Structure formats: structure tokens, C-alpha cells
């Protein structure tokens, strides 16, 4: 079995369990690449993105850091939480997208919690 198939199965397993426990809450979805990290708050019932942030944004790129470190993940988590709270979203379910809750993914989640989101 290839690594790509294994990762896809893990991602689907995580999403399936989230759907059961969501109870109408939006989903905070995380994607990390080797160079950047992206996050979105998604309302699955309506099929729309409520808030998003990434390390590619101009305000975060001006700091001169790479998007592939924990500091960038913290900044993205803080920015995303601020935008979500402005839209009236306070409770979400955290979709780690098949990644372990460790490193950059954990840093983003912790920063989002500190900035007002609860999950």
C-alpha cells in the first residue's frame, strides 16, 4: 500500500469522526505543506468558508520568516481566530486533516484557542 493511499485513508477517517461529533459547529481545517501552512473555518452545512488565513498573506510575509516554522503557524492560528470571532464563530471542531497533532499543527491549534476559539 502506498503512502498516498494511507494518508488519504487517515484523512477520511478523521473527517468521518468529526462529522459525528460536530453537532452543527464549523470545522477548522488545517493543511500544511513543506513551505507554508493554511487554515480555514468551514461551515459544512452551507458549504462555505467563513474565515481563512495562511502563511502566504502579505502581513505575515513581511515579518521575513518562512512559513514552514512553528512561529508562522502560531501567527496563522491567531489571525484565523480573530477573523472567525469577528464573524461570530466561537466554537469549532478541529480537523487536523490526517496530520498528527504535533509541531506546526499543534502550534496553530493552541494559538487559535488562546485567541478566542474553543474546540
What is the CATH-assigned architecture?
Answer: 2-Layer Sandwich
Number of helices: 4
Shape: globular
For the report, how would you describe the main beta sheet?
Answer: 4 strands, mixed
Helix content: 40-55%
Q: Which fold does the CATH topology refer to? A: Nucleotidyltransferase, domain 5
Q: What is the H/E order? A: HEEEHHEH
What is the averaged pLDDT score? 90
Distance between the termini: 33 Å
3D architecture notes:
It is a single chain. With 119 residues, the chain is an alpha+beta fold. It has one domain: Nucleotidyltransferase, domain 5 (2-Layer Sandwich). Helix content is 43%, strand content 19%. It has helices at 3-21, 58-61, 70-86, 104-114, and strands at 27-32, 37-43, 48-54, 93-95. Helix 3 runs parallel beside helix 4. The longest helix is centred in the first third of the chain and has 19 residues, at 3-21. The mean pLDDT is 90.
Question: Keyphrases for this structure?
Answer:
single chain, 119 residues, alpha+beta, Nucleotidyltransferase, domain 5, 4 helices
Amino acid at each position: 500500500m502506498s503512502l498516498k493511499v494511507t494518508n488519504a485513508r487517515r484523512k477520511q477517517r478523521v473527517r468521518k469522526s468529526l462529522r459525528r461529533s460536530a453537532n452543527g459547529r464549523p470545522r477548522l481545517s488545517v493543511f500544511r505543506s513543506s513551505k507554508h501552512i493554511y487554515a480555514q473555518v468551514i461551515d459544512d452545512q452551507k458549504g462555505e468558508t467563513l474565515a481563512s488565513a495562511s502563511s502566504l498573506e502579505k502581513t505575515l510575509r513581511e515579518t521575513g520568516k518562512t512559513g514552514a516554522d512553528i512561529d508562522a503557524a502560531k501567527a496563522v492560528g491567531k489571525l484565523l481566530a480573530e477573523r472567525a470571532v469577528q464573524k461570530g464563530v466561537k466554537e469549532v471542531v478541529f480537523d487536523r486533516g490526517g496530520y498528527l497533532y504535533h509541531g506546526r499543527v499543534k502550534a496553530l491549534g493552541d494559538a487559535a484557542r488562546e485567541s478566542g476559539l474553543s474546540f
